[in-house]
Amino acid sequence: MQASGVLIHQLLLRKVKSQNPAELQFFIGDSNLRFGLGEFVLITTLNFAKDLDVVKYKFMSTSMRLMETYLNNAANVRSGELEAAFLNCEEKEDVWKFGLCYLVDGLLMAQESSTKIMIDMLSFVENEEDFFNYLWGR
Known about the structure:
With 138 residues, this protein is mainly alpha-helical. The protein has 2 domains: 1-44, no CATH class; 50-138, no CATH class. Helix content is 50%, strand content 10%. The protein contains 8 helices and 3 strands, in the order αβββααααααα. The protein has helices spanning 5-13, 37-44, 54-58, 65-70, 79-88, 92-108, 120-124, 128-136; strands spanning 15-16, 23-28, 31-36. Strands 1-2-3 form a 3-stranded antiparallel β-sheet. Helix 5 runs antiparallel to helix 6. Residues 12-138 form the DUF1985 domain. Pfam families: DUF1985 (PF09331).
């Protein structure tokens, strides 16, 4: 299956502000259609289990190299700063890692540029296999 850029563009033109931050709403026809976390999980098969063992993932990688090297070891990083780091990075391997984080934060989670990212993600991405296991809960 291939995504249609035109369809997605038209859908985003009809996006309306939702009171629930865990869903998107679109005005189509005479109705507001909801695209929530449940639908997102079904489509992406990403890990949104309530019993997620966060402690297990905290020890996947303790490297904060990306934070230290590119983000001035900031306590909080916003989506816009992650995007800038991704766009300005020149080290091929780090571009890939920032790209994975940016994909999750900016596209899959549809965060605004002023929203804080999940800092642990910058550590998890240091081990690609563990990062994908975290995303898909395997």
